[in-house]
Design a protein that fits this description.
- By secondary structure, the protein is an alpha/beta fold.
- It has 2 domains: 2-159 and 323-348, Rossmann fold (3-Layer(aba) Sandwich); 162-320, Rossmann fold (3-Layer(aba) Sandwich), CATH 3.40.50.
- The protein has 13 helices and 13 strands.
- It has helices at 20-34, 71-83, 97-100, 123-128, 138-142, 187-197, 212-218, 238-244, 260-267, 280-283, 296-303, 311-321, 324-348, and strands spanning 2-6, 38-42, 52-54, 90-93, 110-114, 132-135, 151-152, 174-178, 200-204, 228-232, 247-250, 272-275, 290-293.
- Strands 3-2-1-4-5-6-7 form a 7-stranded parallel beta sheet. It has a 6-stranded parallel beta sheet with strand order 10-9-8-11-12-13, sandwiched between helices.
- Helix 1 crosses helix 13 (324-348) and helix 9 (260-267) crosses helix 12 (311-321).
């Protein structure tokens, strides 16, 4: 199968630090190549992939100080990718609505993976998109508005490369928060839990410009290097943080489609305590690989029950449900279904009459 993958241009594939979507795209592209498929990946020029890499820009946009406004770069990126689509069996769009807006310019079937929730301001695009889409969790599927145009292809969970995450059954005595530092991610609530319990908390994550005031007001006053430690945005070193932590705190305050950090932590044998929002109940087996709680009180109380959880069960859960080969196989099944559906539609259409010389068609 000849497959065109279109990644966002914000981060390298795989990302140097932050970038859940780009991490997933990297695993998928490499897995498809290993499975014997011909894959072209449109991404930033510094990406590392087994696929054939094509790009309009040398670096991921977010970490490039020369890029003040990413939108012109993103539009050139997606337009060139769509122009390149001729001859492929399927386009897999991870970029979102910008690629969807161009879907009618090609006859190649398109699958759009919903790595983010639908922005209400972009419903206009969804209402006119005639391709296929897949959410990354049942929770995301449940809150998608009904559309007449797009066709639902199935739910596919994101994945991690389990083998690359170190398993460690013996833990150190600290709590961990990893993720974007933002009110929706609940990093301030992780601080509250740690302070209530008198436990050490390590916070790792990026602080975007629009979240700097939030960080300054709700996180920074408590950073003392002892009880609350902030290590900033992390890359590969996050694996050691996961592996040694007593647990990962995920006090999310929004309907997160898929919390990749939960799968990463459990791959290291580290349980997760998460609020009952978004995909958390699908990723965490309550009482086995962590706890699903409703509020800060329950989160603090659940920390006292961590000794009941088996690190080996955490690892097995991710191996059985969220390892990269599982995701690759699921997407291949969806590609094949889409192509079979498209073929049947073509066969069902009437063959147009081609007028011969001298024949008049009304």
């Amino acid at each position: 199968m000849r497959i065109l993958q279109i990644a966002p241009l914000a981060e390298r594939v795989p990302p140097l630090r932050y970038g859940g979507t780009e991490a997933v795209v990297g695993l998928l592209a490499d897995g498809l190549v290993r499975a014997g498929h011909d894959v072209v990946l449109w991404a930033s020029g510094d990406s590392l992939t087994l696929a054939e890499l094509r790009s309009v820009y040398l670096h991921g946009l977010r970490l490039d100080p020369a890029v003040a406004d990413p939108h012109p770069y993103e539009w050139v990126h997606v337009v060139e990718a769509i122009k390149d689509a001729q001859g492929f069996d399927i386009i897999h769009n991870h970029e979102g609505e910008q690629v969807m807006a161009l879907a009618s310019l090609t006859d190649v079937p398109m699958l759009t993976t919903m790595h983010c929730l639908i922005d209400p301001d972009r419903k206009f695009v969804w209402e006119r998109y005639r391709g296929f889409f897949n959410p990354v969790s049942q929770a995301e599927r449940a809150i998608i508005p009904p559309f007449e145009g797009p066709r639902f292809a199935g739910v596919v969970y994101n994945a991690v490369d389990v083998a690359s995450f170190p398993f460690r059954p013996d833990k150190e005595d600290y709590l961990l928060f990893i993720g974007q530092i933002a009110s929706a991610k609940g990093s301030h609530l992780a601080v509250e839990v740690a302070r209530r319990l008198g436990m050490r908390l390590v916070i790792a994550g990026k602080v975007d410009p629009h979240n700097r005031q939030y960080f300054a007001e709700t996180i920074e006053p408590y950073i003392d290097g002892k009880q609350v430690q902030f290590v900033g945005e992390v890359g590969h070193e996050k694996r050691e943080l996961y592996a040694s932590a007593r647990c990962l705190l995920v006090p999310i305050c929004w309907e997160e489609p898929f919390g990749l950090v939960m799968a990463e932590a459990m791959a290291c044998g580290t349980p997760v305590i998460a609020f009952n929002r978004g995909s958390a109940p699908e990723l965490v087996v309550d009482g086995e690989t962590g706890y699903i709680v409703r509020n800060v009180d329950e989160m603090a109380e659940a920390v006292g029950r961590l000794d009941r959880l088996d690190p080996y069960r955490c690892r097995r859960h991710v191996e059985e449900n969220f390892d990269a080969p599982i995701m690759v196989q699921r997407y291949l099944e969806i590609y094949e279904r889409i192509l079979a559906w498209e073929t049947s539609q073509v066969e069902a259409r009437p063959v147009p009459v081609v007028p011969s010389q001298g024949m008049r068609v009304a």
